[in-house]
Structure formats: C-alpha cells, structure tokens
Amino acid sequence: MVMQGVCGRHLAALLFSVALASAAQAQSVAMTGGMGSKALLVVNGGAPKAVASGDSWQGVKVISVSSDQTVVEIAGKRQTVHLGGAPVSVGGGGAGGASGSQIVLTAGSGGHFVTQGSINGQAVEFLVDTGATSVAMGQNDARRLGIKFEQGQRMLSGTANGVVTAYRVRLAKVRIQDVEAYDVEASVLPGSMPHILLGNSFLTRFQMKRENEQLTLTKRY
C-alpha cells in the first residue's frame, strides 16, 4: 500500500510537470492581412482567421488592430505582429522558430493566391504560380532584398515580352506563415514585377491540395 501511494504521488508529479511544460510552449503568430477592425492571423501554421480587437483565437487575444500591425497577448505577454513580417513567438520561455508544416491560402480577386511572406528575413508579397519554374522576381526587388544577383549564373529566360537575360540565384530562406524552406532556387529578371512569383522550386517541396477557394500546401521535405 505504501508503494502504491509513492507511485501515485510520482505519477501525479509527472503529469503536473507535463502540463506545465505544455502550458509554457510558445505560440507562433503571423499577420497575413486585415479586414477593417479585424486582423487576419495565422496561429501555429493553421488556417488564417479574422479576429477582432478584444476577441481570442486558439489562446491568442487581440489587443489592438491597425492597418499594418496587431498587438496580441498570450498568457499575459504582449507582442506586436507586423503585416507580412515573419511569424513571432509569443508566450513560453524562449524564442520560437518556424515549426509549421502546412500553409493555407485563400484565393483573392481573380482566383489568384497572393500571400505575405519573407525572403531572407525581409517582407515580400508572393503570387503562387505553378507555371513558373522557380521563384522569380524583378531586379528592383532583388536589390531591395540585398540579393547580389549579378554574381549569379546568367541565363536566358522566356517571358511574355520575349526572351530576356536573367540570373539564377539561391535564396537562403523563404518563409510563409510558420513554414520555412531553405536553399531555394530563384531567377532574377530585368526591371520590376508586381509580385514575386512563388514557383516550383518552392512548390514542389509541398503536397498541394485545392478545395474551392482554399489552397493547402503540406510540407513534403
């Protein structure tokens, strides 16, 4: 009977420790858009959710919303999440990294999938393009991102305006919501482009599934 009591106390202590560890885990939060007084948030790599000031979603409470940032609170800790910026880790005891494996996108006007993300830690806007061989951007974006494309491999690329001289480069890190991909091939084209094309050098690393107006990318490797 004494042994059973000791084992019971040890089991209770173990369960309590596990509960504490779980409660201390950080939440990853990204802001992918705004809808008036609501912020479009992605929590722990899940589907985007429009959350109004004062409301909560998956343990994340929205304190205030503006056009380009949202202040959130988890377990009494507050942090500012910037539109299009890399996800931030809120709550818990340490800095959080990208641990998500799934990206969920909703089609916008014209049925196109446009999303905020980052390249090498710099905020960008992507347009999903399954017809593009690689991630593609204009030289103006490349310069803004600090990419030394002139040192890349020169090549000829076919565009709507004909064949142009482009540069093949490698991107150290591409991030969307709470998902990161490393060493991604990209091409840099002359001039500027309205969006950075999210092509197959990124997309082929994911299993793609479309249902109505929602596109889900599940990480394969």
Rg of Cα set: 21 Å
Overall pLDDT metric: 80
Q: Could you name the ranges where pLDDT drops below 50 across 5 or more consecutive residues?
A: 1-26, 92-96
Number of helices: 3
Largest sheet: 7 strands, mixed
Gap between N and C termini: 52 Å
Anisotropy-based shape: elongated
Number of strands: 18
Question: Given the helix and strand composition, which structural class is it?
Answer: mainly beta
Quaternary organization: single chain
Order of helices and strands: HEEEEEEEEEEEEHEEEEHEE
Give the amount of beta strand, in percent. Answer: over 45%
Could you describe the 3D structure shown?
By secondary structure, the chain is mainly beta. It is built from three helices and 18 strands. Strands 10, 11, 12, 13, 14, 15 and 16 form a seven-stranded mixed sheet that branches. Strands 3-2-1-8 form a four-stranded antiparallel sheet, with no helix packed on it. A four-stranded antiparallel sheet has the order 4-5-6-7, with no helix packed on it.
Features:
single chain, 221 residues, mainly beta, seven-stranded mixed β-sheet, four-stranded antiparallel β-sheet, 3 helices, 18 strands, 51% strand, elongated
Brief summary:
It contains three helices and 18 strands.
Secondary-structure topology with pairs:
Layout: H1 2-24, E1 27-35, E2 38-43, E3 49-52, E4 56-57, E5 60-65, E6 69-74, E7 77-82, E8 88-90, E9 102-106, E10 114-119, E11 122-128, E12 135-138, H2 139-144, E13 153-159, E14 162-176, E15 179-189, E16 196-198, H3 200-203, E17 206-211, E18 214-219
Parallel strand pairs: 11-16, 12-15
Antiparallel strand pairs: 1-2, 1-8, 2-3, 4-5, 5-6, 6-7, 9-18, 10-11, 10-14, 13-14, 14-15, 17-18
